[in-house]
Design goal:
By secondary structure, the protein is an alpha/beta fold. The protein has two domains: about 5-100, no CATH class; about 110-295 and about 350-450, SGNH hydrolase (Rossmann fold, 3-Layer(aba) Sandwich). It is built from 18 helices and twelve strands. The chain has helices spanning about 5-35, 40-55, 60-100, 110-115, 185-190, 200-205, 220-230, 250-255, 260-265, 280-295, 315-320, 325-335, 340-345, 350-365, 380, 385-400, 410-415, 430-445, and strands spanning about 120-125, 130, 135, 145-150, 160, 180-185, 210-215, 240-245, 300-305, 310, 370-375, 405. The protein has a five-stranded parallel β-sheet, sandwiched between helices. Strands 1-4-5 form a three-stranded mixed β-sheet. Strands 2-3 form a two-stranded antiparallel ribbon. A hairpin with a 4-residue loop joins strand 9 (about 300-305) and strand 10 (about 310). It is elongated, with a radius of gyration of 26 Å. The model has no long low-confidence stretch (mean pLDDT about 90).
Length: about 450
């Protein structure tokens, strides 16, 4: 064998090793996609695996060129991953920087630990569904009478003092007689992720102090019905604001309907877990897991000015698996290819009608007034046709039940750029978005004269 031929054979063998390593990595990545249920870019991975397998049949010189192409591609991918890793925290902070505010890059656990060093008894918020004895589950209230560290989208963390049942309310609201308003809803109703006095319910409380906020992140219509039964029925408020976030409430309902305990609230009159009387038990059940989370979630802030953080083995694993690149690709594919996802939510319209009908019947039973507050998300404001269709169906269903509607969508849509009312890239409203929402609700209550609190 002459020297050029021997050199070609050696290059071919080297190329085979490179291709085999890349093939093994891609195979592991595809398996990881299956187990993590990230199917959106699995077809691309399968095609690439087939190309790698077919490359073994190339002539040694062509195989060597293909291997060089692979090496260049791998270098490019990890360069992109490195850039995205650096840019991710900067993109989080961009809205705050643009508004001339600083951004607190501490993790929630770091904020909690810093507060505790100052003698403040702080915990993170707990969403609905925390397991308690029975078997049972909580409906949104966190640990009671403590400092709750919530979220940070506008630059500073939302930190509030929880009330006697773990919700975001000022002192004394639970004892107000008569109770003017109860607000049911998810994180938007809670007031995520702005200052403690900047959420739309907090702004309503300035006009109507006897307003009880039962909002909690992750709540959907079934949990809201259950929270009304557990906490509001005995208080018989004059007005109930049912705050419906169109971006995910019907999807939440789909998941909630799979929990038998939540269906009991819909199907059985008078069903209750007696959550009001079990607050000490709920607090004790929550404290252990929350303490463990604070102790275990530790990281190092490498570059404070841009928020670059190292999470130990988690960061290494995410980088090697091209986590940020995968997420970017998934977002691109999802944005262009999931136009019919809203149809899964549309299938819940029958159950949604049942929930609203029962809520209307119960509230009318104590001579209260139910208002349905429609809260828009980003996709409907981008004129997504599926979300527009759902809006029409939701509002039609509510109106057929005789429930008055407070539609916030037009107030957002009339703005030159409605998306400036959100803390993009985050999903929640910013201070201005919450202010407009509060104004719209207060105007509707004032117009309804005899029905206002």
């Amino acid at each position: 064998m002459d020297a050029p031929e021997a050199k070609g054979q050696h290059a071919g063998r080297t190329a085979t090793v490179i291709i085999s390593v890349v093939l093994a990595f891609c195979l592991l990545d595809a398996v990881h996609s299956v187990f993590s249920r990230r199917f959106v870019y699995l077809p691309i991975q399968v095609v690439f695996l087939l190309i790698l397998i077919a490359s073994y049949r190339l002539r040694p010189s062509h195989r060597a060129n293909f291997a060089l192409l692979l090496v260049g591609l791998i270098v490019a991918l990890f360069t992109v991953e490195f850039a995205l890793t650096i840019l991710e925290p900067m993109m989080m902070a961009r809205p705050a920087w643009k508004a001339g505010r600083t951004f607190d890059f501490r993790t929630r656990e770091e904020v909690i630990r810093d507060l505790r060093r100052k003698g403040v008894d702080a915990f993170q918020r707990v969403a609905e569904g925390f397991p308690i004895a029975g078997p049972g589950m909580t409906l949104g209230g966190s640990i009671s009478n403590t400092t709750i560290v919530y979220c940070n989208e506008t630059g500073q963390y939302t930190i509030f003092r929880s009330d006697e049942h773990g919700f975001n309310n000022p002192p004394g609201v639970w004892n107000a007689k008569p109770l003017q308003i109860v607000a049911l809803g998810d994180s938007f109703t809670t007031g995520a992720c702005v200052g403690p006095d900047e959420g739309f319910v907090s702004l309503i409380q300035k006009k109507y102090p006897a307003t009880l906020n039962l909002g909690s992140g992750g709540n959907g219509p079934l949990v809201e019905l259950a929270a009304m039964d557990e906490y509001a029925v005995a208080l018989k408020p004059k007005v109930v604001l049912w705050c419906f976030f169109e971006g995910n409430d019907l999807d939440d309902l789909r998941h909630e309907s799979a929990k038998p305990i939540l269906m009991h609230y819909l199907q059985e009159d008078g069903f209750s877990q007696n959550l009001v009387g079990r607050q000490m038990e709920i607090d004790e059940a929550m404290k252990g897991p929350l303490e463990q989370a604070v102790d275990s979630r530790r990281s190092t802030l490498l570059i404070p000015s841009i928020g670059l953080r190292f999470y130990g083995r988690t960061s290494v694993r995410r980088f090697v698996s091209l986590h940020e690149t995968h997420n970017l690709l998934a977002q691109v594919i999802h944005h262009g290819g999931d136009k019919d996802a809203w149809k899964a939510e549309e299938a819940e319209m029958g159950l949604f009608r049942e929930v609203m009908a029962k809520a209307q019947k119960q509230i009318s039973g104590w001579d209260g007034k139910l208002y349905f507050v429609f809260l828009p998300g980003t996709e409907i404001l981008r004129n997504d046709p599926g979300r527009q269709t759902l809006r029409v169906e939701v509002l039609q269903t509510v109106k057929e039940l005789g429930i008055p509607v407070i539609d916030v969508y037009p107030a957002f849509k009339e703005r030159p750029d409605p998306l400036t009312l959100f803390s993009l890239p985050f999903p929640h409203y910013n201070q201005e978005g919450y202010r407009i929402t509060a104004e719209k609700i207060l105007q509707a209550l004032a117009v309804n004269g005899g029905s206002q609190p």
